[in-house]
Write a structure and sequence with these properties.
Length: 374
């Protein structure tokens, strides 16, 4: 049987009817995963690539979103003849559990109460999310993925796939990711969560039947922009340019960077759930390979896939030297691994917004060492 997908199809949903045990000791009695597919699964079922999304993204990696008409977050890389070539590969992108893109999360109905879970939803780890993804891949009848790719939060998922399911992935492209979430990022996430919780409309997470805590969510997202984007990138894009004469001796937005932030604030709406941001950031904070497995050597021991590590020379949140450390451990264990450092002025956001170099690397890698074209 062939599985087909087109770029503008509706989001699909897989419903898992049995409990999922979680790292916390709790369980989800059942769960759903929203996902998108692009391309065609071959008769041999050997051409599937799982793409794992970044923190605030979802399953719509390509095509046009139905709500706002914007392209998917990796649209420029996805399609016929592109880096993720839908003429050759069957691409799967799933929204993680805990997210708000259609998968089971805080917005979902708690079967025990008949109301949205809100903060009754169990706290998750990246490992929990990967175990749920594996159920989806198994449901699609895929024994082994041709590849997996993800950046940042998605890269953490890719690493856990390699560790948890050896033999299930042939090649993994891990982008802008480190072995553990840093204290700097934990501090940023904590402040973002405070903005959300201090919004009067948050109501302890029970806002689904009342006013939406848009002010808190907006402040949290604005807080992250100058952290996610590199200083030199912001300087190159905006500098000290203004809307008119500077100084204008006003307290309004006189600089173009201020206009950009104000426009971003106006675009923040109900498309992202504040409670989901709390859960996803906490899951990313728990990501710690040494803490979970004892050492990187122990964590990477089971890996039998070919690994490509991609980093950016301007990414000070996930610096290249931290990814090179992963590469050295992998190679020291005799694994097939290489590390490419890409240039971009956009820092940590480069894998989302400056994708040319990333695209070239992905195209070459997923063909690298292939016995035959899928």
């Amino acid at each position: 049987m062939l599985i087909n997908a087109t770029i503008n199809r509706p989001v699909l949903c897989y419903h898992h009817r049995t409990p999922l045990a979680l790292d916390s000791g709790q369980q989800l009695p059942a769960f759903s995963i929203a996902y998108e597919t692009y391309g065609r699964l071959s008769a041999e079922r050997n051409n599937a690539i799982l793409v794992c999304h970044a923190l605030t993204k979802d399953a719509r990696m390509a095509g046009r979103a139905t709500a706002d008409g914007k392209p998917g977050w990796w649209d420029t890389l996805t399609g016929p003849g592109k880096a993720l070539d839908t003429d050759r590969y069957f691409l799967i992108c799933s929204n993680v559990i805990g997210g708000c893109g259609g998968s089971t999360g805080p917005t979902s109905i708690n079967p025990a109460t008949g109301r949205a879970y809100a903060l009754d939803f169990p706290v998750l780890t990246v490992r929990d999310m990967v175990r749920a993804q594996q159920q989806l891949v198994e449901h699609l009848g895929i024994e082994q993925l041709h590849g997996i790719a993800g950046g940042c939060f998605g890269g953490m998922q890719a690493l856990e796939w390699l560790i948890q399911f050896p033999g299930k992935v042939r090649r993994a492209a891990v982008i802008s990711t480190t072995e553990a979430t840093s204290a700097h990022t934990i501090a940023l996430f904590h402040i973002m969560r405070r903005f959300i919780r201090e919004d009067p409309d948050w109501c302890g997470g029970r806002y689904y039947e009342g006013a939406f805590p848009s002010k808190g969510l907006t402040q949290a997202i604005l807080m992250g922009i100058p952290i996610w984007m590199n200083r030199s990138g912001l300087e190159a894009k905006f500098g000290r340019r203004g809307n008119g004469q500077i100084p204008g001796y006003t307290l309004g937005a006189e600089f173009t960077i201020e206009d950009f932030l104000e426009q971003t604030a106006r675009r923040v709406d109900r498309q992202f759930d504040p409670n989901s941001l709390l859960y996803l950031t906490r899951a990313q904070e728990y990501f710690d390979l040494v803490g979970s497995y004892g050492s990187l050597e122990a964590a990477f021991g089971p890996i039998d896939a070919e690994v490509l590590l991609l980093s950016y020379d301007s990414d000070w949140r996930y610096p290249s030297e931290e990814m090179e450390k992963l590469n050295k451990v992998l190679r020291g264990l005799g694994k097939v691994s290489r590390h490419e450092v890409l240039h971009s002025p956009l820092g940590h956001g480069a894998f989302m917004y400056d994708v040319e170099g990333c695209g070239v690397a992905l195209r070459q890698f997923f063909d690298w060492g292939a016995e035959s074209s899928p």
